[in-house]
Structure formats: structure tokens, C-alpha cells
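Human: Here is a favour to ask of a fellow structure person. Comparing notes only helps if you start from a blank page. I am asking you to supply a protein in sequence and C-alpha cell form. Write it directly below this note and I will take it from there.

Assistant:
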Amino acid sequence: MSSRCSFCSQIPGTGSYVVAGPKGVGICDLCAITANTVAQEALRPHGTERLVTGIRHLMTNDPTWGGTFGIIDDAAVAIRKGRVAWVGEEQDIPRQLDDLPRLDCGGRVAVPGFVDAFCQIAGTADGPQASEEAPLSEAATEWAGRLLAGGATCLMVSVRTRGNFTKDKERLTAANMLKQELPLKVVTSWTVAPDAGISPYDGEGKSILREMAQYLTGVSVVVGAEGYSTTDARKVCSLMGPVRKRVRLHGNPDIPADMVRAVRPLAVQDMAQLDEWTLQALRSNGGAVVVQPMISFGARLPIQPLKDLGIPIALATGCLPGDRAVTSMPFLTWVASETADVSIETALWCATYGGARAVGDRGRGLIRRGAAGDLAILDIAEFRELANHPDLPMVWELIREGDLTTVGQAG
């Protein structure tokens, strides 16, 4: 029996394995996970047909409805096969949609499903880890479940390497399994920096980068004073296969404009300084800026200036078990609104549309025909009411591709 996988033709590295099957066929652990994910997704009864009515104010983030936020009053949304099939005023619902199962929101507001643009859930970060009583996968599922209950339908889960690549694979595998356990879209990212001992020029470093790419949706590269140079960052990305097109740059205090132009990241984060040339490069390339309101609490976030420049801003919990763990996206939205001195609607735009742009998903973060049927129904009648009681549970119902997740108060 060959130690090479019959499906990806790779020889698994340390800590991985090939399962032998009939007639000399073998499958590695990564391909087995992929096959199981595909099978489970095909069997899951997702994409329920649904007509959501009784929406007092619907934020679509579709400018065709007027303004940046595309707000429709007295709105309804029809979802078929997990995608938005129709959106508009409730009085204009087409007759052919009348027979769809209805969810009456009772005059509440609705926004696209929230996107957490950067989190480090239990079992995937460098902080407190799972105990023997709570295995890594269970700890990850527990924390992701809290983020789901907080309104998130899409997560970007980051694992920063410290040089233990076997442990990194375990953490990334746990993160990838979340979408089987919970009604979530999960984007996985591996954060790499020179202090992990990875050089994109020697044979071992190249092998590690190529092998890790199989576990990822995207890659995050630390640049600047404590990170890679522009040339080295480009080399790291070039070795990551298809993942090289889904790059995020982490730079403190700043990220040079030439690096943004060379790497063309989906997003940047951890920038303490916003250089004019870097911002112009981001605007030209369509990159987003990720901010973590809880980490920046007390400092004025530059949300409005970035929005005025046409640069998407994404909100992130940075969620990690500890004193500042925040799992409620509505609460995070309020913090961003207060810290940046912007309207609740602007902060909601960042937490939905901006987050989707940061993770490279143009089909989320907005409500229009063909977009993902993800909706967060908030237990308020006006958007501004979110600021009145930000500490209270706000998610009345959360819809993921037409399915009721039953994590809100309605469930």
C-alpha cells in the first residue's frame, strides 16, 4: 500500500496519515475531512424556502434602494434554495411567492447576517486551550456557538503559528469542522510571521507553506518592523497555491503602500497609522480595513474617514476566552458606533457588508437577488434603539441560507 493519497496525490506530513481502502486506494486525513464536509453539506436540508414578512426596516446594503444602506420600510424577503429570490416592500410580494412558509417579524428591523471578520475561538488561539475534559473540537464548537447566538452567520477564524505545525493543523481542522457542527460559514486563516522560523526561500520553509495551504481558506501575513518585507511577503503568498489570492496583511504600526500594491490583500488589520498612500492603494485594489472595537476601546476609530474614501471597514470581535471576550455582534456594533462617533446604521454596515468584503465573499453582507439568504432579525423597531440597551440580547431570530437557526429569542 502506497503512503500517497489516491485523491490529492500528496504524501502526508508528520502527524497526518493515509487510510487504506480496497484495491490499493488510500485517502489522507485532509481529503477524508473534505469528502465528509461535501457529503454532510449535500445531505443537510439547507436552503429552506421561506418568506420573511413584517420587517419594519430592512437594511439591504444595496444602493439601488437608495443611499449606502439601501433601507426598505415595511419590507419582505423571499428565500429559495438558500438564496434571496425576491426583496421589496411587503405590499408588492409577487403572487407566486404567497405559498412559501412565512416568518412574521412583527415589525422588527432586519439586517444581513453579521460577519465576524477576525476571531480566535477556544481551541484555535494561543490563549487558554481546551482541557482533557473539553477536547479541542468541543471547545471550538462551544465558542463558535456563542458567536452564532450573537448574530454571526460567517466567521473568519485565525490560527497564528508559533512554529508547532502539527498543532496548527489540529487547530485548523477543528475550525474547519465547525461548519458541520453549526449553521455557519467558516473562513480559516493561518497567520504566519518570521518569528515562527519559516523562510520562503529554503526547502523546509517552502514545504511547510505548501502543506499548510491545504488546510486553509486564506492566509494572513505579518509585515512591517516585526514581519516580512514586501519581497518576502510576495514569496510567501506565491507558495500558498490558490490561497495566495485570499491574503490579509497584519502590520503595526503601518503597512507600506508598495506592499499593498504588490500583494493586493483582501484586507489589512492591526494598523495603528493610516498612511495616505497606503489608503490610496487599498482603495485602488478594493481592500478592506479590519478594526477590533474592543481592543481599540477608548481610541477613536477612523470609520467615517475610511468610508468617505470608499474603503470598506469590517468589524471583528477578536474573540478569545478572557476578560474582553465579546460574542455579541449587536453589542460590538454599538461599541464601534460610540468609539468612532458614527451612526448605528454605519456601524451595522461595517458589521455586515464590510465584514463580507474583508473575507472575500461578495455574496454576503447584503440583501439582493442571488445573495446568501442570511438575515439577522433584531428585537427592536428602529435601528437607533440598539444604542438604548446594547447589553441586552438583541437577536430575535437568525436565518442562515433560509434555515431558522433558533438561536434567537424567537427560537
In short: The first helix runs from residue 29 to 43. The two ends are 51 Å apart (CA to CA). The chain has a mean pLDDT of 87. DSSP finds ten helices and 17 strands in the chain.
